[in-house]
């Protein structure tokens, strides 16, 4: 089926949170299910059929589907289900690259002679996840990461799609340009204005034409993907390139500084637990019209200190406040990027009597011993800290 001996599977659980709820409560099966109250964290496919989407306001979702069942999130159940699914992944092949708690790439090239063709491996994988974990999963199979992910998206929900090596472009080129990684609303609008609506039309353009339309990086990137050029291998044990967290907000006013401090406290603790440091702080905003924006600040030296990184995040938030006041805000997030190992942290002169980050280390130990809510900022007393979403290891 494949000329290459390195076929790649992209396995993606379907409506993960909602599927876990339907698995654990038979009364929810076949019914529209919304996970989360004020903001939709996940929706079953029965709910998605009514136009309900993740991050939508809960009131709007219930207007679209008044008979939907709203359930509170159970993050411990989702984390346990994810671990069980990844055990199946790693039992299938040691070459597993997790993308999130509910999706991963698997390199099954070395299994052809032992197990059989990739279609058989993918089918058995889906059967095992359903039998052992009780969840539906969609799998796309192709020779590149990009095409495998596209195949799984096309096959959803609860499907399997194999793209043969001799028909890759026949499958890819009729698809809409939005299937290309990196094509969001803005880029799609630019291409649509020029009459470019399919991946095949992008592929027929010269790279120089795409660069002139979209810029050097985006033009080269999309030109390569439109020809299914994606040489990236599956990287088992690959570490995160960023560590972040976000908080969905309702329409009521919020103390954004307190929420920002809470987010930074959480992600800097994760940063130190992973023995890493960062140089760049990214502030993520989603406005009331659901458009998004990012702001970033890069420090001179890498650090893992909460105080320094919170100061940088506050500067970004302060600069964005006028725009937030005029447009409203429905999500606030922070990411730490430009990561390196913690041994790259530069000691600064003059040396103090106490080591840098001593307070952070003490607070980390207290939280490790007595729980993450044992010590908190005074600004967060009596406030909802938000939902702690399960994540892959940092």
UniProtKB/TrEMBL annotation:
<dbReference type="GO" id="GO:0000287">
    <property type="term" value="F:magnesium ion binding"/>
</dbReference>
<keyword id="KW-0239">DNA-directed DNA polymerase</keyword>
<comment type="similarity">
    <text>Belongs to the DNA polymerase type-Y family.</text>
</comment>
<keyword id="KW-0234">DNA repair</keyword>
<feature type="binding site">
    <location>
        <position position="102"/>
    </location>
    <ligand>
        <name>Mg(2+)</name>
    </ligand>
</feature>
<dbReference type="InterPro" id="IPR022880">
    <property type="entry name" value="DNApol_IV"/>
</dbReference>
<comment type="function">
    <text>Poorly processive, error-prone DNA polymerase involved in untargeted mutagenesis. Copies undamaged DNA at stalled replication forks, which arise in vivo from mismatched or misaligned primer ends. These misaligned primers can be extended by PolIV. Exhibits no 3'-5' exonuclease (proofreading) activity. May be involved in translesional synthesis, in conjunction with the beta clamp from PolIII.</text>
</comment>
<dbReference type="InterPro" id="IPR043502">
    <property type="entry name" value="DNA/RNA_pol_sf"/>
</dbReference>
<dbReference type="InterPro" id="IPR043128">
    <property type="entry name" value="Rev_trsase/Diguanyl_cyclase"/>
</dbReference>
<protein>
    <recommendedName>
        <fullName>DNA polymerase IV</fullName>
        <ecNumber>2.7.7.7</ecNumber>
    </recommendedName>
</protein>
<keyword id="KW-0238">DNA-binding</keyword>
<dbReference type="GO" id="GO:0006261">
    <property type="term" value="P:DNA-templated DNA replication"/>
</dbReference>
<feature type="active site">
    <location>
        <position position="103"/>
    </location>
</feature>
<dbReference type="Pfam" id="PF11799">
    <property type="entry name" value="IMS_C"/>
</dbReference>
<comment type="subunit">
    <text>Monomer.</text>
</comment>
<dbReference type="InterPro" id="IPR017961">
    <property type="entry name" value="DNA_pol_Y-fam_little_finger"/>
</dbReference>
<keyword id="KW-0808">Transferase</keyword>
<dbReference type="InterPro" id="IPR001126">
    <property type="entry name" value="UmuC"/>
</dbReference>
<feature type="domain" description="UmuC">
    <location>
        <begin position="8"/>
        <end position="184"/>
    </location>
</feature>
<dbReference type="Pfam" id="PF00817">
    <property type="entry name" value="IMS"/>
</dbReference>
<dbReference type="Pfam" id="PF11798">
    <property type="entry name" value="IMS_HHH"/>
</dbReference>
<keyword id="KW-0548">Nucleotidyltransferase</keyword>
<dbReference type="GO" id="GO:0006281">
    <property type="term" value="P:DNA repair"/>
</dbReference>
<keyword id="KW-0227">DNA damage</keyword>
<dbReference type="InterPro" id="IPR024728">
    <property type="entry name" value="PolY_HhH_motif"/>
</dbReference>
<dbReference type="GO" id="GO:0003887">
    <property type="term" value="F:DNA-directed DNA polymerase activity"/>
</dbReference>
<dbReference type="InterPro" id="IPR036775">
    <property type="entry name" value="DNA_pol_Y-fam_lit_finger_sf"/>
</dbReference>
<keyword id="KW-0479">Metal-binding</keyword>
<keyword id="KW-0460">Magnesium</keyword>
<keyword id="KW-0515">Mutator protein</keyword>
<dbReference type="GO" id="GO:0009432">
    <property type="term" value="P:SOS response"/>
</dbReference>
<feature type="binding site">
    <location>
        <position position="12"/>
    </location>
    <ligand>
        <name>Mg(2+)</name>
    </ligand>
</feature>
<dbReference type="GO" id="GO:0042276">
    <property type="term" value="P:error-prone translesion synthesis"/>
</dbReference>
<feature type="site" description="Substrate discrimination">
    <location>
        <position position="17"/>
    </location>
</feature>
<dbReference type="GO" id="GO:0003684">
    <property type="term" value="F:damaged DNA binding"/>
</dbReference>
<keyword id="KW-0235">DNA replication</keyword>
<keyword id="KW-0963">Cytoplasm</keyword>
<dbReference type="GO" id="GO:0005829">
    <property type="term" value="C:cytosol"/>
</dbReference>
<dbReference type="InterPro" id="IPR050116">
    <property type="entry name" value="DNA_polymerase-Y"/>
</dbReference>
């Amino acid at each position: 089926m494949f000329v290459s001996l390195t076929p790649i599977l992209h396995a993606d659980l379907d409506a993960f949170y909602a599927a876990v709820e339907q698995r654990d409560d038979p009364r929810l099966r076949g019914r529209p299910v919304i996970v989360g109250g004020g903001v939709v964290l996940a929706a079953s496919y029965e709910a998605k059929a009514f136009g309900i989407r993740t991050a939508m306001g809960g009131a709007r979702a219930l207007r679209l589907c008044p008979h939907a069942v709203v359930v509170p999130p159970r993050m411990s159940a989702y984390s346990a289900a994810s671990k069980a699914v990844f055990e199946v992944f790693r039992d299938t092949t040691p070459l597993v690259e997790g993308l999130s708690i509910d999706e991963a790439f698997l390199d099954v090239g070395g299994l052809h002679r032992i197990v059989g063709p990739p279609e058989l491996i993918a089918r058995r994988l889906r059967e095992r996840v359903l039998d052992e974990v009780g969840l539906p999963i969609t799998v796309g199979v192709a020779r590149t990461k990009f095409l495998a992910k596209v195949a799984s998206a096309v096959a959803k929900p609860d499907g399997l799609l194999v793209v043969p090596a001799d028909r890759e472009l026949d499958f890819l080129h009729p698809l809409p340009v939005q299937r290309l990684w990196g094509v969001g609303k803005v880029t799609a609008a630019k291409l649509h204005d020029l009459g470019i609506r399919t991946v095949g039309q992008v592929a027929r353009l010269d790279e120089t034409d795409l660069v002139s339309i979209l810029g050097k990086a985006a033009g080269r990137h999309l030109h390569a993907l439109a020809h299914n050029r994606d040489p990236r291998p599956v990287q088992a044990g690959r570490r995160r390139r960023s560590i972040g967290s976000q908080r969905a907000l309702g329409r009521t006013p919020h103390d954004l500084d307190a929420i920002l401090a809470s987010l930074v406290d959480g992600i800097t603790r994760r940063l130190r637990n992973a023995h890493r440091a960062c140089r760049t702080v990214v502030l993520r905003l989603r406005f009331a019209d659901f458009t998004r924006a990012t702001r970033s600040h890069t420090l001179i030296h890498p650090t893992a200190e909460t105080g320094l990184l919170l100061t940088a995040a506050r500067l970004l938030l302060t600069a964005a406040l006028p725009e937030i006041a005029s447009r409203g805000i429905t999500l606030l997030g922070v990411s730490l990027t430009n990561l390196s190992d913690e041994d790259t942290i530069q000691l600064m002169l003059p040396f103090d009597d106490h080591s840098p980050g001593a307070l952070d280390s003490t607070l980390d130990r207290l939280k490790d011993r007595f729980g993450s809510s044992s010590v908190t900022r005074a600004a967060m007393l009596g406030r909802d800290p938000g939902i702690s979403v399960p994540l892959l290891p940092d």
